[in-house]
UniProtKB/TrEMBL annotation:
Its cofactor is [3Fe-4S] cluster; [4Fe-4S] cluster. Gene3D superfamilies: 3.30.70.20. Residues 89-108 are annotated as: Disordered. Residues 1-29, 30-59 form the 4Fe-4S ferredoxin-type domain. InterPro entries: 4Fe4S_Fe-S-bd (IPR017896), 4Fe4S_Fe_S_CS (IPR017900), 7Fe_ferredoxin (IPR000813), Fd_C (IPR022569), FdxA (IPR054829), RnfB_subfamily (IPR050294). This is Ferredoxin. PANTHER family: FERREDOXIN, OXIDOREDUCTASE. It comes from Thalassolituus maritimus. Ferredoxins are iron-sulfur proteins that transfer electrons in a wide variety of metabolic reactions. Keywords: 3Fe-4S, 4Fe-4S, Electron transport, Iron, Iron-sulfur, Metal-binding, Repeat, Transport.
Length: 108
């Protein structure tokens, strides 16, 4: 499956959800995650993310591998918050885009 990683936190641009053919993105307060059991590996979403936060599981950078498990956990926790339509990014998305190590800010 594909995985949403650190740079989505506090940005949440949501361009990714528009292209997903199986609607497998789930929304938390300041990040999205992908349900790995539903993702069909179509690879349509990663190029759409302005923050370049989406990777195929095999290509997740080593310092971000914890996001693989986190996507699975949070997709379950946020199962009622399926998101299928793009909306406005978080207000300070531009400011946070590219800031490293945002895990501590991830609200869940
Ligand atoms: Fe959806 Fe395809 Fe991205 Fe998986 S790879 S989350 S199926 S758009
Ligand atoms: Fe996040 Fe990128 Fe989607 S910032 S909400 S993974 S477009």
């Amino acid at each position: 499956p594909f995985v949403v990683t650190d740079n989505c936190v506090k940005c949440k641009y949501t361009d990714c959800v528009d292209v997903c053919p199986v609607d497998c993105f789930y929304e938390g307060p300041n990040v999205l995650v992908i349900n790995p059991d539903e993702c069909i590996d179509c690879a349509l979403c990663d190029s759409q993310c302005p923050a370049q936060a989406i990777y195929s599981e095999d290509d997740v950078p080593p310092e971000q591998v914890h996001y693989i498990e986190l996507n699975a956990e949070l997709a379950e926790k946020w199962a009622d918050n399926n998101i299928t339509e793009m909306k406005d990014p978080l207000p300070d998305a531009k400011k946070w885009d590219g800031v490293p190590d945002k895990l501590k800010y991830l609200e869940h």
